[in-house]
Amino acid sequence: MRLLLVEDEPSVAVGVVRALRGEGYAIDVEADGGEGLTRARTGQYDLLILDIMLPTISGLEICRELRNEGNWTAILMLTA
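The structure corresponding to this sequence follows.
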């Protein structure tokens, strides 16, 4: 299973990546909303994990954009 994590807080990203890779998942990471949206559009992911508050584009906006484009990849939102 391939996952995309879009998280700008390094300590949170490291912890999530460590836990998910430990369970055998392949995971890509972006720290910027715009870069995350590009990767979500061009990659083949089974799950997107999006922080809500991101630089350039919020996780909510990434979700809206993808849904408007007909992308129905599962999304898990992270919040403080």
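The mean pLDDT is 97.
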